[in-house]
Amino acid sequence: MQRPGTFADANADWDDARFVVLGVPFDRTTSFRPGARFGPDAIRQHSWNFESYDLETGLDLADIPTHDLGNMEEFGSAQVMVDGVREAVAPIYAAGKFPITFGGDHACSPPCVEAYPKPDELGVLYLDAHMDFRSSYLGDPRSHGCSARRIVERVGARNVVVLGVRSVSAEEISDNKQIGMSFVTAHEIAREGIDSAVQRALNMLKTDHIYISLDIDAIDPAYAGATGTPEPFGLTPRDVKTVLQQAAPRLCGFDIMEVSPPYDQGNTSVLAARLAREAIVRVTADQNSRRPS
Ligand code: MN
Ligand code: MN
Fold first, then answer.
1. Taking the CB of residue 32, how many other CB atoms lie within 10 A of it?
2. Is the pTM of this model over 0.90?
3. Phi-psi map region of 138: left, alpha, beta (phi>0 left; psi -120 to 50 alpha)
4. How far is the CA of 118 from the centre of ligand 1 (A)?
């Protein structure tokens, strides 16, 4: 069965939905190899691979109200895209719903954070092989190479932790010495173990609510090679599953960026789809556990 138009089991209409899926087919700031603009549709297509029932939580995704808004139009520049995505995501938070955004290159994440109504009260876990901390890249401050920097400008350096970084320029390191954003490298995670590393990252974030931005290149290219700038020595899919599980009680939004279907034999898209479903079941299971019986 393949119904590529929508994310699997996103059967709810807007009013009833708790989770809202949005696609941003934009990859104009890709620096190495393009293709992420095809990411949203590929992730949706591969979401039909799965059973709606989730073994671990006992939840059925068909029973969790999720609405798919479809894709935004194609934008001519990053700045226009940013304005458009911010406008599209703001009503999702305003309605008390949980946005799940599929990119697109990583330039599509900052507007998803900027749309949050109380920026001082939002922490961001930024999963990426790269630091994305340039003030401007190839003349564009809204390039995907600047996304963590833009997010820091919005929510403050103390409210951002980058997880899984292993590729960075000397300038990004020296800039960050002044600015003070925390990061946990992929090598530290490998030595320390994911459970401890995630707990440490979550403890650094003092906010009640956390947004997770997943650049799929945070995951090792052995598992997720279909991306614009693959980088060895990455996280495992299970590491990211652990992040979602541990962050679930505070999670208020999630995005998956930089899936590039032209390089995919299916495994990267299917992994992205599975991680989106993991976020949905983990957040729902946590809410259900706190509901008075
Ligand atoms: Mn990135
Ligand atoms: Mn990256």
1. 9
2. yes
3. left
4. 23
